[in-house]
Amino acid sequence: MEQRAIYDLRYCGDGYDARSAVRVLTAEAVALDRAVGRALSSLSGQGPVTLFDFGYGTGRVTNEFLVEFPRTFADAGRDLRVIAYDVSAQGLRKAARSLADDHGFHLGDLVFSDAAVEGYVAGSAGREDGGTRVSVTFVHGSEGEGSDAVQKLILRANDDVPVMVTTSWYSAIAHMPGAEVRASFFRMLSEVTDPRGELLVAPSVSGDLPELQEFWTKKRLAGEAGGLPIEMDGDVIYRTELEQDNYCHVFGPDLWELLEAVTQPGQHAWLEAIRLPDEEFRSRAEEQDNYRRLRAFNQEVGRRRWTADDYRRVHTAAAIRSGSPAAAGD
Ligand SMILES: C[S@@+](CC[C@H](N)C(=O)[O-])C[C@H]1O[C@@H](n2cnc3c(N)ncnc32)[C@H](O)[C@@H]1O
């Protein structure tokens, strides 16, 4: 179940990206704008805003954000540098093509080595928009490498300084078997991020795939999961739209444990629902209905620690660590 092979194939077609009528959820866009807004208040300066997206895929959330950045954050008067990291060269290529064809980005020499055993910087894309420069550096990773190697690669891609904002949408961390491995990558995401900046990791949680979770827990307890990476509650094998078997860890209270472990005194940590467990959205109206209910959920739980039942009421959650106190709207 090599993720590179699975996602290279998924990104060849449109099935993965077109599974929902709504490409970027309102809650994702709002959470990202708020995180960047907080980072701008706590990390003033002249240099570019720097954002690292781990498991960027085709840039589903990040590209919409970066295209609008010059207008959304016009007052900040700063450039934007995105570091787009993924193990799928196919996803990165597709994203680069879309930035060039749909948004006029200039592509430098992008050189991909699809089967590389070490991660490398493939090249970048950029454009000027109303005096703001937006650039995207594409980093092709190899899942054979541990978190230390990825950390070095990302810091090198960012001139050896930590980034202001790290995101991971539909997080790649969920595709890593083994609680220890996930913890080491979560720590790495924290370590490449300026402590005054923002870390936002959004994986699926207990309300996603409930039947499959039950199925695989029963199999594990009956000793029938031999040879498969099914080690704890939340570990599942699911079928993709291309009939590939893929591993995913659906998070529960272990998401909070990962976040708490990387939160220092003076930083703020909380969970936020990003999607409630409905079917894939067939229209913006369905997504908006989900968004309305999830805002009520977020208000109800506030900043308290989520119970196991809270996780079951949510499909995707963002684990957020912020270097600045949350703003009133958060
Ligand atoms: C569910 S997709 C999410 C993609 C994108 N962030 C989005 O929201 O649409 C998970 C992504 O994680 C990537 N991935 C899987 N394992 C990875 C790893 N070890 N390191 C980096 N990316 C990985 C996959 O290639 C895929 O693009």
Radius of gyration: 19 Å
Mean pLDDT: 96
Strand order in the sheet with the most strands: 3-4-5-2-1-6-7-11-10
Largest sheet descriptor: 9 strands, mixed
How would you concisely characterize the structure shown here?
The protein is α/β, with parallel strands linked by helices and 330 residues long.
Can you characterise this structure?
The longest helix has 18 residues. This protein has a single domain, classed as Vaccinia Virus protein VP39 (Rossmann fold, 3-Layer(aba) Sandwich), CATH 3.40.50.150. Helix 6 links the parallel strand 6 and strand 7. It is 37% helix and 23% strand. Helix 1 packs parallel to helix 4 and helix 2 crosses helix 3. The two termini are 38 Å apart. The protein is globular. With 330 residues, it is of the alpha/beta class. The strands form two sheets. Strands 3-4-5-2-1-6-7-11-10 form a nine-stranded mixed β-sheet, with helices on both faces. Strands 8-9 form a two-stranded antiparallel ribbon. The model has no long low-confidence stretch (mean pLDDT 96). The protein has ten helices and eleven strands. It binds S-adenosylmethionine (SAM). S-adenosylmethionine binds next to helix 1 and helix 3. The site of S-adenosylmethionine (SAM) has 18 residues, from helix 1 and helix 3.
